[in-house]
Write a structure and sequence with these properties.
heterodimer, A: alpha+beta, six-stranded mixed beta sheet, four-stranded mixed beta sheet, 16 helices, 28 strands, about 40% helix, B: alpha+beta, about 20% helix, about 45% strand
């Protein structure tokens, strides 16, 4: 029989109507699933009582193995055991080369950008590997909650771009999980502590995991979390603490000949000692060496001095993140600690000293992100009807499209709360233009080449019209997960074309931050480039229309002399147009316009005469 | 007329009450609904009503309205684990048949 959970007064759900929703922290090293039950939000353990599921999948002839079992086989079966797949999510084959040492797998030759890993069970994309991890968590959740999941909130790093978010959503879909929403990891941690119930303030989320460090500066304003900046180090974490201590062991024990096994042993002992020092002042570490047993005493002072430099590195990243966010240190109202390595007392003390306030530490830092996601999932599933909280995120980078001359026209600016929909009208550039390529880009720079290309599609069937007469409405829509769809509609004929942006490769961790920085440091250069392109577009426009006019009426309306003069002027402008001085181009365009005025006037006279041919004055008056 | 609770159930209820931070006890009840007529109610109690009957098991208050008590008299609330799933179970001697999942029942 079904087992019951305690509900809030007056909110017992109808039988068979309970909506089961979970929060999933899909991590690089470990993943977790959490749910609200009996008024309590908690992560769900597996049959062995383990809450953390190692994010490792091993492919075999039979069913894939996920978690601790797969991890144990990683050394023996490296090609079929996929670890840290999150680093590959939303990346193209090109990006993989940049990962360097990471790429121990056999990558299949990629077609269409998405990388595939060769395994004994066939080619696997990072999305499929993630889907296998999510499936395992789904089974655990459904066994624990005894029912089918309504949906899940899945967390992603704040710096994840569109491609990486879409890849995560695709993985969930393959695993048969309905994504209620993707939530930024730091936002989830803030929600777990109920910080979203506060009015407003700046929140620093310090996330030190096993192998990565992330700092996020969030601003809460009227229930909307805005990510002001992110920073960190993708190769700094608790593992480095272990290595520093293991190095000290080596020196003290005067070990010179160290093989891989001994090295692992030393790191393992170091890790154990580190964990002990979170609750006691000193620890005795025993070693069983070939030359006999030995032991060392590690005090907190000693350990703190060994990891001091590593902690300093994280604090300088905090300083940079605050600077990027243009926030003063004393504006930070809350500090949240995430990640197992924030259990190290020295980390807590130094973070507290740096931000000058006590960080939130009550929730297990390994589980806080999953717990925040579960709180949000419970809400989105409709289990708390009287709650008005609707948590919003913001767009990390501006979205726009390419206009003539390779310029970016921003349609939705960065830091706009999502979901959002915006439309902008565009027009045609040439007479009789019957199609328009819509090129969707993401980024802050003025030139399309410096932004990230997301999608390209064509609106066809625009009825023939003079340049500038067609009215094309391009609508951008970003859903609550930060995913974009774009549609274009020609208003007079109603032809529509649209696209769901599903890019096949993504940006590297720090690229978003770099793109933002580049937009500031290149502001002047960008402005010049924009002016140049604008004038080049102007020059092209007048050159093309003059050429067309000469072809049509040149022989009738122009003397040979006049024609030659015009052509000389045009050649001059073409020369200027290919240079880099936009002011000269602007002048050249004006001069050519002036020089060709008489020709335009004659053409106009001619077309009026044509129009009047065969009509009596009465007909014309009748029209007036 | 009485309602009881196993120690396992009492332990869990008091833990949940503690983590919730407030609440006078737990309310048991029935209401009409579901595929088989009646459904159980299991809720935290913030306010005890005048007409409510209150029982106690291992320091935990069990609150029930008089109408529900007719259907639940003699019930023992238990807390059980079935694989990964765990939760509360009504051992109700008055039930004649229940729907497949046990979320609703008939007397």
């Amino acid at each position: 029989m079904a087992l019951l959970q305690i509900a809030e007064p007056g909110q017992t759900p109808e039988p068979h109507q309970r909506k089961l929703a979970v929060g999933i922290d899909l991590g690089t090293t470990n993943s977790l699933v959490a749910a609200v039950r009996n008024g309590e939000t908690a992560t769900l353990p597996d049959h062995d009582g383990q809450h953390l599921l190692p994010s490792v999948v091993r492919y075999t002839d039979a069913e894939p193995e996920v978690g601790a079992g797969a991890l144990a086989q990683a050394a023996k079966d490296p090609f079929n055991t996929i670890v840290s797949v999150k680093r590959l999510m939303g990346r193209g084959a090109e990006d993989l080369k940049a990962l360097g040492g990471q790429a121990v797998y056999r990558f299949a030759p990629a077609d269409g950008g998405m990388p595939y890993i060769e395994t004994v069970a066939g080619r696997k994309s990072p999305v499929q590997v993630s889907a296998d991890i999510l499936s395992s968590l789904k089974v655990r959740a459904e066994d624990t909650l005894a029912g089918e999941l309504e949906g899940a909130v899945i967390t992603v790093p704040a710096y994840f771009d569109d491609a990486q978010r879409q890849a995560t959503k695709d993985a969930a879909q393959i695993a048969g999980i309905k994504v209620l929403r993707l939530l930024n990891e730091p936002t989830a941690a803030a929600v777990a502590y109920g910080l979203d119930e506060g009015a407003e303030g700046v929140i620093a989320v310090y996330d030190l995991g096993g192998g990565t460090f992330d700092i996020s500066i969030l601003r809460l304003n009227k229930g909307v979390f805005e990510v002001l900046s992110t920073g960190g180090d993708s190769a700094l974490g608790g593992d480095d603490f272990d290595l520093a201590l293991a190095e000290w062991f080596k020196d003290q024990l005067q070990l010179t000949d160290i093989d891989a096994r001994l090295s692992r042993e030393l790191t393992g002992r170091a890790r154990w000692a580190k964990e002990q020092l979170s609750t006691q002042a000193s620890v005795e570490v025993g070693f069983d060496l070939s030359g006999g047993g030995s032991s060392l005493t590690v005090t907190r002072e000693l350990f703190d001095s060994l990891v001091d430099n590593l902690i300093k590195k994280t604090l300088s990243a905090c300083r940079r993140a605050l600077k990027d966010a243009q926030v003063e240190l004393d504006e930070v109202s809350e500090v949240v600690l995430v990640g197992g390595s924030t259990r190290v007392l020295a980390v807590r003390e130094r973070v507290e000293a740096y931000f000058k306030r006590a960080p939130h530490v009550n929730i297990d830092p390994d589980r806080v992100v999953a717990i925040g996601a579960a709180v949000q999932a419970d809400l989105l599933a409709g289990n708390k009807p009287d709650s008005e909280m609707l948590l919003l995120d913001v767009l990390p980078l501006s979205l726009g499209l390419e206009t003539m001359g390779g310029l970016t026209e921003k349609v939705i600016h960065r830091n706009t709360p999502i979901p959002v929909a915006k439309a902008q009208d565009f027009t045609t550039y040439q007479d009789g233009q019957n199609g328009m390529v819509i090129h969707v880009v993401q980024g802050e720079r003025e030139l399309v080449d410096d932004c990230r290309s997301l999608a390209r599609f064509t609106l066809r069937g625009i009825p023939p019209m003079a340049a500038g007469a067609a009215k094309i409405r391009v609508s951008f829509q970003v859903d609550a997960d930060g995913l974009l769809s774009v549609s274009a509609k020609e208003l007079s004929s109603g032809v529509v074309s649209e696209i769901q942006v599903k890019p096949s490769y993504g940006l590297a961790d720090n690229e978003i931050a770099d793109m933002l920085k580049a937009s500031y440091s290149n502001a002047e250069e960008d402005m010049h480039a924009r002016s140049l392109r604008e004038q080049q577009v102007e020059a092209d426009r007048i050159l093309i229309s003059l050429e067309q006019a000469i072809e049509a009426d040149g022989d009738v309306l122009l003397s040979a002399e006049e024609l030659q003069h015009l052509q000389e002027q045009m050649a001059l402008l073409l020369q200027l147009r290919n240079g880099t001085n936009y002011k000269l181009i602007e002048k050249g365009v004006k001069e050519l316009a002036k020089a060709s005025d008489f020709f335009a006037a004659r053409r106009m006279d001619l077309s009026i005469k044509e129009a009047l041919k065969g009509q009596s004055v009465d007909d014309i008056e009748g029209d007036v | 007329m009485a309602i009881t609770m196993t120690s396992a159930a009492a332990n869990h209820v008091s833990r949940y009450l503690q983590s919730r931070g407030h609440g006078a006890g737990i309310r048991l009840g029935v209401r009409t609904s579901g595929c088989s007529g009646m459904a159980y109610v299991l809720e935290f109690v913030d306010a005890v009503q005048d007409e409510d009957e209150v029982f106690e098991a291992e320091g935990v208050k069990i609150v029930i309205d008089p109408k529900s008590l007719l259907y639940l008299d003699g019930t023992e609330l238990d807390f059980v684990k079935e694989g990964l799933n765990e939760g509360f179970k009504f051992n109700n001697p008055n039930v004649k048949n229940e729907c497949g999942c046990g979320e609703s029942f008939n007397i």
